Amino acid sequence: MSEIVRLATPAEVAREAARRWAEIAQAAVSERGRFSVVLAGGKAPVELYKLLASEPWRSQAPWEHTAVFWGDERRVPASHPDSNYRMARELLLDFVPIPQSQIFRMPSEGLAGGDIREYEERIRRYFDLGPREWPRFDLFLLGMGADGHIASIFPGTRAVSDRTNMVVVYEVPQLRAERMTLTLPVINHARHVLFLVTGLDKARVVKAVLEGPQRVSTYPAQAVQPVEGAVVWLLDQAAASELVE
Question: What is the pLDDT of residues 203-240, one digit of tens each?
Fold first, then answer.
């Protein structure tokens, strides 16, 4: 069951996300000695990252015990303006004391089979996983496209139905571009999944995902149903405007 939190503005969405990040991180470190988070790309987390890089939020998160991963990446160099890694680096990671050894960038220059194996192996080593075990990230951040896609799991693509792999690389037909993405089983084994969705252009798909019939191939966001975790949707007034009160 999803928790739906309606907030007035995108700024309030970012503040609530920062509060929850700090709370989840502190609890994870208290219980397990470390905190693992999967970052989102795109526009959704921009204001959140800026907040976390500044006070008072910067002092409230246990950065030295934080490990950072990415949910998806474009086939561009790490220095490219479209790089999800670059965005997170410039807005957040350069301003907080996370050890470099705990920053797990997706290899993005080639996006070949070796890159898939390399990133999966990084995840397996961090979580000390057996052959058939899935990672349990403490927090998985997600935005959602106006077409209902999450990470780089796009409607009607093989990424929607992949229940075997942790990481996939494929050409997204809608974009005519190659993407690397973590898969739905990885998302659904997270302890906390936090959606950040703002803007009137998302209102129709928010209603379809949260109140419409299950059509996972059309709306991949509907497939986010954690095995033993919690899903929270942080929506601004515009994005929530078509939901039933």
Answer: 999 999 999 999 999 999 999 999 999 999 999 999 99
- What would the two tokens of residue 133 be? 């075990």
Q: Alpha helices, DSSP H only, in the chain?
A: 10-32, 46-52, 84-91, 113-127, 158-161, 184-188, 203-211
Read off the pLDDT band of 175 (50, 70, 90): confident
CB atoms within 10 A of CB 144: 25
CB-based contacts of 188: which residues, under 8 Å, 6+ apart? 223, 224, 225, 226, 227, 229
Domain layout of the chain by residue ranges: 2-236
Give the DSSP per-residue string, 219-242.
-GGGG---SS-EEEEEEETTTTTT
Q: Give the three-class secondary structure for 3.
A: strand
Q: How confident is the model at residue 73 (pLDDT cuts 50, 70, 90)?
A: very high
Domain 2-236 sits in CATH at 3.40.50.1360
**Whole-angstrom Cα distance, residue 69 to residue 224?**
18
Examine residue 107 and say whether the peptide bond preceding it is cis (omega within 30 degrees of 0): no
What size, in residues, is the chain?
A: 245
How distant is the alpha carbon of residue 55 from its chain centre? 23
Alpha-carbon dihedral 22, 67, 144, 236, rounded to 10 degrees: 10
Rounded to whole angstroms, the Cα distance separating 75 from 199 reads 27
